[in-house]
């Protein structure tokens, strides 16, 4: 009698094992996409100066000091994309853009970044206050705010200070649209920062 049920038991057992294996298998996570902010703007070359500028990496609070890409859908609310992130922290990428942009003006003897053991005349300090994709409006926009200070390295006195705010419309309402807008916003910011530094 039992031999009659053996084929059915084997089928049932195999179905149960298949079900358990699917339950116990790792959860599939979406592919991670990493993006850069690396658009260097075209700047007008000016007369060659004699100052060396040390560019510090922008300081940033916890929200903007990681690789997370931040967005908002409601006022006073922030979140980060699950499967999309920056390839490096925004501070690192913006510092690189600052150095390249100021070098391209040819207005300085040298533009350097830390660590730098040599002599420098000016220090460019900055603070990243905001870099987020705003979905409270359509199409979404990137909001980029940076506070900059130019400091005399010999006296440690602030020569000039300014807060820059750039709002750039995203070409599409998704994370990649935000990446494109962030690159455009950063390029606009670098142009304004170059003028600010040269003026002072």
Would you kindly provide a written description of the structure presented here, covering whatever features stand out?
With 200 residues, the chain is α/β, with parallel strands linked by helices. It has one domain (35-199): Rossmann fold (3-Layer(aba) Sandwich). Helix content is 32%, strand content 32%. The chain is built from three helices and nine strands. Strands 1, 2, 3, 4, 5, 6, 7, 8 and 9 form a nine-stranded mixed sheet that branches.
Q: Mind telling me which CATH architecture this is? A: 3-Layer(aba) Sandwich
Helix percentage range: 25-40%
What's the order of the H and E elements? Answer: HEEEEEHEEEEH
How would the global form be characterised? Answer: elongated
- Quaternary structure type: single chain
What is the CATH H-level superfamily? Answer: ABC-type transport auxiliary lipoprotein component
CATH fold description: Rossmann fold
Give the overall pLDDT as a whole number: 88
Give the percentage of residues in beta strands.
25-35%
Please give the radius of gyration in angstroms: 26 Å
Report a brief summary of the structure.
Helices cover 32% and strands 32% of the residues.
Helices and strands in order:
Elements: H1 2-24, E1 33-35, E2 52-55, E3 59-60, E4 68-72, E5 79-86, H2 90-105, E6 110-113, E7 122-134, E8 141-152, E9 158-169, H3 175-199
Parallel strand pairs: 1-5, 2-6, 2-7, 3-7, 4-7
Antiparallel strand pairs: 4-5, 7-8, 8-9
Helix pairs in contact: 2-3
Which short descriptors sum up this protein?
200 residues; alpha/beta; Rossmann fold; 3 helices; elongated
């Amino acid at each position: 009698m039992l031999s009659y049920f053996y084929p059915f038991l084997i089928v049932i057992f195999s179905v149960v094992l298949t079900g358990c294996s699917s339950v116990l298998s790792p959860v599939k996570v979406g592919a991670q996409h990493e993006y850069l902010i690396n658009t260097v703007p075209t700047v007008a070359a000016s007369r060659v100066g004699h100052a060396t500028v040390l560019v510090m990496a922008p300081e940033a609070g916890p929200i903007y000091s990681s690789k997370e890409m931040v967005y908002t859908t409601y006022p006073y609310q922030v979140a980060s994309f699950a499967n999309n992130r920056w390839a490096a922290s925004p501070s690192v990428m913006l510092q690189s853009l600052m150095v390249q942009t100021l070098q391209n003006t040819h207005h300085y003897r040298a533009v350097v970044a830390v660590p730098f053991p040599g002599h420098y005349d000016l220090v460019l300090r900055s603070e990243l206050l905001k870099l987020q994709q705003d979905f409270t409006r359509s199409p979404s926009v990137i909001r980029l705010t940076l506070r900059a200070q130019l400091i005399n390295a010999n006296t440690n006195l602030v020569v000039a200070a300014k807060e820059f705010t750039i709002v750039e419309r995203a070409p599409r309402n998704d994370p990649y649209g935000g990446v494109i807008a962030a690159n455009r916003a950063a390029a606009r910011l670098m142009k304004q920062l170059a003028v600010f530094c040269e003026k002072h």
